[in-house]
Specification:
single chain, Four Helix Bundle (Hemerythrin (Met), subunit A), four-stranded parallel sheet, Rossmann fold, 15 strands, 3 domains, four-stranded antiparallel sheet
């Protein structure tokens, strides 16, 4: 079974499943008040890769990723633009989904919206108030953190440590009995959306939303809860507090990924290095960002700049080239994790599969696993050059392992990506006009005849003409293949 770093115990340990053969994952999704940035994409990719790998091993995964569609920032933007909160949330949820589609993130099995679970949140809060774990006043309903002996355990700090730092990441509020207490329910303010409750009209606090949605779908004692490491406190710590105060078992394993740096600095709007997904994908192949995430361990800060994105695009060309060469040799390039019976990979290259599995089982070691795929690409090319029968198995192995990582092959023009996922309305790019295939085929064939006739001057002229049209020709043992650069 896979071993993952557990933030609560600060150890890499096996994921102990509640139900044999099944995994429940709850990953905190976006608050939809703006276009998604590259940090959102990294987060979604981290849990997409984890899900794909677990499915590849034969486990049945239930992946839940919420949408926070009511929040202070959504309310503020709606008020500033004279729109409803629902209109703001719908616009930016669409933008988020488009960005996830661009990087081939599988749709979660469940994408609950906070506004759909308000009834469950009210009942949860009612129980906490009834037990004395929470108290109500004119400002709303607050959890009594002082009753929880292990509050702060997720970030390995004591309640006293956290009280001393109150004001940094803890909201100061004179309505609280304790600076660490936090809102479960917020009383209505003029102009804000509200729901009726036993404590008067109001809206839920942020943390109770995820508790209600995660346990409402996955049940108590579910397997994995995760998100960015910036959510460990206060959000995830407060989720734990709410569940513990109710006497219910919460997540068994806590998985947090690191942040994104842009040009050596933590991405921040205040620093002016904020990168939206649309901006990045207008300039680079979206697959390159997935590859960059794979080549960076999920617990390491990831650097994003033009240089590393260009390097990732160059590396992708090795995969794309193998795809073309394999097709020219008559080998299937359609094989992927989705096309293989989960957990059964006996007909693949055993050494590569074992190295891949070992890396991924060791705290989702995607850098080593990706290196294994690259090495298998190299071996497959060598086998193709030699006309070896091993080529078929190695090619199949490349596509199977890459499928488990969500990597797609084949040269993608940016326009094709944008049109496929609907990004063309929100990003700018220079459209690439595809040449007429029949005309290019004729030029490539003429070049081959010139080479066969040893008319190398004509062959070079034809290659130069193809290059001027943006066409790259590769000579393989099975004849030339071409593609648009």
């Amino acid at each position: 079974m896979i071993r993952l770093y557990d933030t609560l115990t600060a150890t890499v340990r096996p994921v102990a499943l509640r139900d044999a053969g099944k995994v429940g994952i709850y990953a905190c999704g976006p608050t939809v008040y703006d276009h998604p940035h590259v940090g959102h994409v990294r987060s979604a990719l981290t849990f997409d890769i984890l899900r794909r790998y677990l499915e590849w091993t034969g486990l049945e995964v239930t992946h839940v990723a919420n949408i926070t569609d009511i929040d202070d920032k959504i309310i503020a933007r709606a008020a500033g633009e004279g729109r409803s909160e629902a209109e703001v949330a719908a616009e930016f949820e669409k933008s988020y989904v488009e960005a996830m589609d661009a990087v081939n993130v599988l749709r979660p099995h469940h994408s609950p919206h906070a506004t759909e679970f308000v009834g469950e949140m009210i009942e949860f809060v009612r129980g906490l108030v009834g037990s004395g774990a929470a108290y109500a006043n004119d400002a709303g309903v607050y959890l009594r953190v002082g009753r929880l002996s292990d509050y702060g355990a997720l970030v390995h700090r004591t309640p006293d440590d956290l009280r001393q730092g109150a004001g940094a990441r803890v909201e100061i509020d004179e309505n609280k009995e304790d600076p660490l207490d936090f809102a479960l329910w917020k009383s209505a303010k003029p102009g804000e959306p509200t729901w009726d409750s036993p404590w008067g009209p109001g809206r839920p606090g942020w943390h109770i939303e995820c508790v209600a949605m995660s346990m409402g779908i996955l049940g108590e004692d579910f397997d994995i809860h995760g998100g960015g490491d910036d959510l460990a406190f206060p959000h995830h710590e407060n989720e734990r507090a709410e569940a513990n105060a109710s006497g219910r078992k919460f997540a068994r394993h806590w998985v947090h990924h690191a942040m994104v740096n842009v040009a050596g600095e933590k991405m921040s709007k205040s620093l002016g290095n904020f990168r939206t997904a649309g901006d990045l994908f207008a300039a680079h192949d979206p697959r390159a960002f997935r590859l960059l995430v794979l080549q960076t361990h999920y617990r390491k800060t990831m650097e994003v700049n033009t240089g590393v994105m260009t390097q990732a695009e160059t590396a992708l060309e090795r995969f794309d080239s193998l795809t073309r060469r394999a097709a020219a040799a008559g080998l299937s390039t359609e094989r992927s994790a989705a096309g293989v019976s989960p957990g059964h990979h006996e007909d693949l290259d055993s050494a590569a599969v074992e190295a891949f599995r070992s890396a991924m089982d060791n705290d989702l070691g995607t850098p080593e696993a990706t290196a294994t795929v690259f090495d298998t690409v190299r071996r497959a090319n060598t086998a193709l050059d030699a006309g070896s029968p091993d080529a078929a198995v190695l090619v199949a192995t490349v596509f199977d392992l890459a499928g488990a990582l969500g990597l797609e092959f084949g040269r993608y023009i940016l326009r094709e990506i944008h049109d496929r996922v609907g990004l063309s309305d929100s990003v700018s790019y220079s459209p690439t006009v595809a040449p007429e295939s029949a005309e290019i085929d004729a030029l490539v064939e003429a070049r081959s005849r010139a080479r066969a006739d040893r008319d190398f001057a004509e062959a070079d002229r034809l290659r130069d003409e193809l290059t001027a049209r943006g066409i790259v020709v590769e000579d393989t043992p099975n004849g030339p293949i071409w593609y648009q650069a």
